[in-house]
Amino acid sequence: MTQMLPLLLLLSASMGLGLWMGWQFLRRQGSNPIHIGFHLILGVVGLEMVVMLLRGAPDGSVAAAGALGKSTALVLATAVITGFATSVLARRWSRQGSAWVLAIHALLGSTGFVLFLAWALDL
């Protein structure tokens, strides 16, 4: 569990920033590219850390991957991909269409976070 603590903090920061940006979106306020960039970096680094834990922790121990670990990595990877798709489609689609992609991104990110918590507590 101790090897999961940095990842927990990282994913919590990404989740918190994403929730705050989602709240700003619902209030129809503009997005700050710096916040989006930090959210992107936190999400990609969090995904990378999940994959590293599946392969082996920095201290040499390997986290039991199982179905929860692999599902966590898959769902978080899909959340990162839909996050990129949101930024691309927001320029081409209407606000309602891009809002659907953003909602899917938020759902996948939240599901990935909950799966990570279940995986971390299962160890």
Automatic annotation (TrEMBL):
The chain crosses the membrane at residues 34-54, 74-93, 99-121. Keywords: Membrane, Transmembrane, Transmembrane helix. It comes from the Bacteria. This is Uncharacterized protein. It comes from Rhodoferax fermentans.
